[in-house]
Design a protein that fits this description.
alpha/beta, binds calcium ion
Amino acid sequence: MAKILIVEDEVKIARFVELELKYEGYEVEIANDGRTGLDMALHSGADLILLDIMLPGLSGIEVCRRLRLESEIPIIMLTAKDDVTDKVAGLDMGADDYMTKPFAIEELLARIRVALNRHTKRVAESEEKKDELSFGKLCLLLGRHAAYFGEDELSLTKKEYELLEYLLKNKNIAVTREQLLNNVWGYEYFGDTNVVDVYIRYLRQKIDDRFGVHVISTVRGVGYIIKDEK
Ligand code: CA
């Protein structure tokens, strides 16, 4: 279950929210001033922060600003009633959401769930991005072993996918048939490299022919290459 850090100097409110969150199954930590809050936010491994604005030490706005310099952790600001300036300042500093005191605990719980889900999704998306290999409209999702051309998923066999991935990872380098055999089929080359040519032909049918592009080039006397247009 997620860990939530409450940064709030009003002890009663902090205690009340803590009990409710624990009842929901969250782990909870509390800081009663801005400096402690910032320090705990950076080091305690919390998953979300409830951050009061009017705090001794550092204001919530300042805590938020400093946190955002090094952390994407979801922040929900707790603001005094009708203090529009504070709300805007908090959001400007990168807070994800805010709650006006006094608030209904059900609403706070709902906003916490939304902020946590959104964050999880964002992290997953950025991880997936790192796991992409692109060439023009062609895109490989390495984690899923899936290949797309624009919006269309290519239906590639395992070997076709691996062949394409190897060529893309060696973009702008001519790779020999032997190299392809060794790295994609995974055995030492003894005789016939025709199998590579056959699979290249399949790939070309599925990409070049289907989409009218030219992705894989033949390098005469060497092998194949995926080359950036110059
Ligand atoms: Ca306060």
